[in-house]
Amino acid sequence: MDVKSENWLQKGIFFAIFEELYLFEFEKSMEYPRHVALIPDGNRTRAKEHWLEQMEWHFAWFQRSIDLAIHIFENTPIEVFTLWGLSTENLKQRTEYELSYLFTLYERITENLYEMMRKNQVNFRVVWDIAKLPQHLQDFLIEKQQEFSFDSPKCFVLALNYGWQDEILRAINKLVESWENVTKENLEKYLDFYGLPTVDLVIRTKQKLAKRLSWFMLWRIGYAQLYFTDLYCPDFSIEEFNHALMWWNTTLSSQNFGK
Predict the structure, then answer these.
(1) Is 43 a catalytic residue?
(2) What does the domain layout of the chain look like in residue ranges?
(3) Which of 249, 255, 258, 248 is nearest to 228 (CA)?
């Protein structure tokens, strides 16, 4: 190796070490959101672009979601992670074959997260229009909510057959049936996410084709920062998630949250 090449190598090593130290110091001082919500989009588009079996890509998304949940509750102080697994529109428009496969995956979530959730006292909660899902799935998820119930603020939330319009209509009907006065506080008691902190960061994959919220948790995300990534959901890595957290941290100084 000549002297010039050796100098470039030394400079490269120096900058790599400097970057690692900078990130380490930054992460020590950074703040974290309490509640992060993920809209995982791009499974079918990614599969079509690469001539892959659609269910294979759904499974890849499922595995990535498991990895993210473990990382969040093992390595960060984030209290709540909400994953949108199925919208009300999805339930109406997807084929029975696709839905059946997705339901099978959802019944494996707590199995894949069992050790982590027990170790870290992570509650499991499902928000949904329960009546329109298969009975066996209803029974299974109700049982798992009871099994993973701890005296802890940490919570993994799975949104199934969920849409904000549907959520607000169901809440209004419950409020009317209760004969309580129509107030913000009374209505909020009947919303799916009642008792959880408001969302601080919403992440959506497939930015170029889906830079929108699709009626997701509109009551809870009024002051949330929105992070759109060009990656499709199975490609959204833990490294990219950490970049989203660091980006969120840099926005705090410019936020006054209505003050």
Answers:
(1) no
(2) 1-30, 33-252
(3) 248
Contact 147, 71 (CB under 8 A): no
| 41 among known catalytic residues | yes
pLDDT for the residue numbered 256:
63
Tokens in use for 183? 């107030």
| pLDDT confidence of residue 22 | 46
Which residue among the candidates 67, 90, 112, 235 is catalytic per the annotation?
90
What is the average pLDDT across 220-240? Answer: 88
Topology annotation, domain 33-252: Undecaprenyl pyrophosphate synthetase (3.40.1180)
* Cα 45 to Cα 29: distance, rounded to the nearest angstrom: 38
Q: What is the pLDDT of residue 71?
A: 97
Supply the pTM of this predicted model.
0.84
Helix pair angle (238-251, 54-75), 10° resolution: 50
Instruction: Give the CA-trace dihedral at 44, 45, 48, 50, to 10 degrees.
Output: -110
Q: 147 or 92: whose pLDDT is higher?
A: 147
From 41, 166, 192, 200, active-site residue: 41
**pLDDT score of 12 more than 80:** no
Query: Hey, is 251 helix, strand or coil?
Result: helix
At 31 the three-state DSSP class reads coil
Give every CB contact of residue 32 below 8 A, 6+ residues apart in sequence: 76, 77, 78, 245, 249
